Automatic annotation (TrEMBL):
Protein name: Type-F conjugative transfer system protein TraW
InterPro entries: TraW (IPR014114)
Species for this entry: Sphingobium cyanobacteriorum
Keywords: Signal
Signal peptide positions (record): 1-23
Amino acid sequence: MRLLTLPVCATSLALAIAPQAMARDYGQHGAVWPVIEPDLLQQIHARLTQLEKTGETARLNEELKRRTIARVNRPEPVAGVTLAAALRSWRFDPTITAPRDIADDKGRVIIAAGTRVNPLDTVPLRAPLVFLDGDDPAQLAWATRRYASTKAKLILVRGAPLELMKARQRRFYFDQGGTLVKHFGIRAVPTTVEQQGRALLITEQPVPPKERAPS
């Protein structure tokens, strides 16, 4: 029994002393200052109010509007694309491997993971894709003359698509961010992309010298 008495007594003594130790007043150490930093939301509100009074908000909005319109009319050119100086062509296989099961709206698996799928089997490329520099009159003349009677999609890597649509009464597209150029490995323009069986034939081709004169 003596072996059990010592821990019990020690525990009782600790519990009796603990409340007194925790409740001790240690006094004040150092100066205490009130919080005088202004509220962040109040600062933002005051700044916005000031901008509104001075007309700065209206000016900023107009500047944003102007820049947005300018970017729509003339998107950022696709970097790294040059003028085609030599004929270069290659076949592009669009086949992909499904990374996971693809199910329909009822949960039924229509394409199992690991299945190789060629999009051209179900969605053929109905018209050529023509990539060109919209600021090059020769490329524009060549493309619009060669594909005048087709539904080829003229895709700009540089230039003003809306202005060209109005001037030539034809739809022009723009490869925003160079997504398609990177996907197909295009390095120069003009370049055409056409379906050839279950693959795509991509051809970078210089504008013939006799067609360099703009129409």
